[in-house]
Amino acid sequence: MSTSSSNGLLLTSMSGRHDDMEAGSAKTGEHSDHEELQHDPNDPFDLDNTKNASVESLRRWRQAALVLNASRRFRYTLDLNKEEHYDNRRRMIRAHAQVIRAALLFKLAGEQQVAFGSSTPATSTGNFDIDLEKLVSMTRNQNMSTLQQYGGVKGVAEKLKSNMEQGIEEDEKEVIDRKNAFGSNTYPKKKGKSFYMFLWEAWQDLTLIILIIAAVTSLALGIKTEGLKEGWLDGGSIAFAVLLVIIVTAVSDYRQSLQFQNLNDEKRNIQLEVMRGGRTVKISIYDVVVGDVIPLRIGDQVPADGVLIGGHSLSIDESSMTGESKIVHKDQKSPFLMSGCKVADGVGSMLVTGVGINTEWGLLMASISEDTGEETPLQVRLNGLATFIGIVGLSVALVVLVALLVRYFTGTTQDADGKPQFIKGTTSISDIVDDCVKIFTIAVTIVVVAVPEGLPLAVTLTLAYSMRKMMADKALVRRLSACETMGSATTICSDKTGTLTLNQMTVVETYAGGSRMDVADNPSGLHPKLVALISEGVAQNTTGNIFHPKDGGEVEISGSPTEKAILSWAYKLGMKFETIRSESAIIHAFPFNSEKKRGGVAVLRGDSEVFIHWKGAAEIVLACCTQFMDSNGTLQPIDNQQEFFRLAIDSMAKNSLRCVAI
């Protein structure tokens, strides 16, 4: 039986204010032409240009000024040495990436094939009017002049035979042609460790090394003292136990490694939305091709290199590529986007210009591999215990060895007849060697008894058994430490949406016109003016989309689960999505984020009126409202109804509904 999450919706009208703090003031500072003529931007001592001063200018300022305790005085300003270090590191990473790329291209050219998809040499671009190397170089070097030569983003899109609004054609042959011309969004992976490498690593455990030494010593002494027939038993049994532990550990680690590789491939196979043929479709990140138009939202990973088509307050976290924890604002002056980076804030759309090994992220991923050889917390503690036991055992064995040797050579040790075993000048060399070997055997026995040879095997078998039991319950185990952690868990806290449910939402309860609607999506009880206002707010203030198939099939609604639920609800109310978007234009957007808990758009209507539509957490939006629109389409003060709306929000929250206000 399928289960779907529900979505509560509270609708109120918010009065527009021209001095909205988030919208910003209408006045902006401007420099007159006269002021610009007075200053030379290249002058390092030009005070009016210090905000965006070059590193060289700042360095000359530091050299020109004598400052006491400079490290303290300049602690809140740009660290020139650190900036130079970051710059050198970026250059080194890029140089390293280019060397790897050149080697890969050389290898692929010789083999006439590319792993994970075919590719042509760099100079071949199929039926497209742009050279691959120049396209990759433009994005990699973030060269604005080259972009302008191509005619900006629009010119690049035309050369790539892509539409900035509708994307490429939704055709399999089109996708294959682009992969052949520009490569696929994959990169060669390093081979995992072989089974023999796991065998090599397994025997290097400290406990096993002590046991191996003890086994060899016990075997040699046993054969020396008791002969080959019975003397090999003790040493051989220890050696067999050690060999069994090594084999079981290696097999378990090797199977875990294979499982981890499969899980890692699944983790990297991100599903994302792209525009193809005017509709939003979900594809694998590996299927992204050059020319694709990809919408970007907060939290998304940039799937490939590209240029920004348009956006609102788009900020990118490029720390994964540059090493600097700076959030970079992207606009038409800085439109280049690097794959592997995260969208920190805002919304936008990008045109893909580079994929796979033609991106720095792909080259870096091809040059590194993830180390999965970590020990579990239990293994770490047991290794510590085994080391402690080994040290204590060796210490006791050494003390016993010294004590027995002192007693022997001082004549204190006696044989079965009560006579001293060692008499100076009388006892033969052969008897002395035999007696010393027996004493040494006692010391080795102490070490063997002290170090538990079954401990590593017991730990390995227990963890492997736990992993198999969890997998039988359809719980994929990525790390063995998860078995220990889950074994100690008494309560599991989980979010509901998308984890315990199908992550499919619908609007089930609505308050509009100052009262609760009997049927959530029935517009009969609402004034046409209110329905029109709701429709405009939903159609413009959304990152989702509604697609009407040309063959007249079922309408396709895309976006986040919440967006899809609201769009579907408004569509049933009679919202004409494309018509509303064509009749009004968004002049500014305030993207939703978890801090503000609301997002909005400023919409310019055909009659030159500007409306600001907000959408977000019900209690946040309600606190900003001064009026609401009643069922007659007239604005009423919200003071008298404030408590009514608060009770409605509490009621929805108690029913585990996600409450949204417009």
TrEMBL record:
Might you give the EC number(s) for this enzyme?
Answer: 7.2.2.10
Residues that span the membrane, as ranges = 198-223, 235-254, 385-409, 439-465
Q: Which Gene3D superfamilies match?
A: 1.20.5.170, Calcium-transporting ATPase, cytoplasmic domain N (3.40.1110.10), Calcium-transporting ATPase, cytoplasmic transduction domain A (2.70.150.10), Calcium-transporting ATPase, transmembrane domain (1.20.1110.10)
Q: Which domain of life is it from?
A: Eukaryota
Molecular functions (GO terms): ATP binding; ATP hydrolysis activity; calmodulin binding; P-type calcium transporter activity
Q: Which UniProt keywords apply?
A: ATP-binding, Calcium, Calcium transport, Calmodulin-binding, Ion transport, Magnesium, Membrane, Nucleotide-binding, Transmembrane, Transmembrane helix, Transport
What does the UniProt entry say about where the protein is found? Membrane
Q: Which SUPFAM superfamilies match?
A: Calcium ATPase, transduction domain A, Calcium ATPase, transmembrane domain M, Metal cation-transporting ATPase, ATP-binding domain N
Q: By its UniProt entry, which PROSITE patterns does this protein fall under?
A: ATPASE_E1_E2
Reaction(s) catalysed by this chain's protein: Ca(2+)(in) + ATP + H2O = Ca(2+)(out) + ADP + phosphate + H(+)
Give a GO cellular-component term: plasma membrane
Renumbered residue ranges of the record's region Disordered: 1-50
Membrane topology reported for the UniProt record: Multi-pass membrane protein
Annotated Cation-transporting P-type ATPase N-terminal domain residues: 149-223
Record's compositionally biased regions (Low complexity): 1-15
Q: Where is the composition biased (Basic and acidic residues)?
A: 28-42
Assigned protein family: Belongs to the cation transport ATPase (P-type) (TC 3.A.3) family. Type IIB subfamily.
Q: What is the protein's given name?
A: P-type Ca(2+) transporter
Q: Which organism is it from?
A: Noccaea caerulescens
- Phylogenetic classification of the source organism: Eukaryota, Viridiplantae, Streptophyta, Embryophyta, Tracheophyta
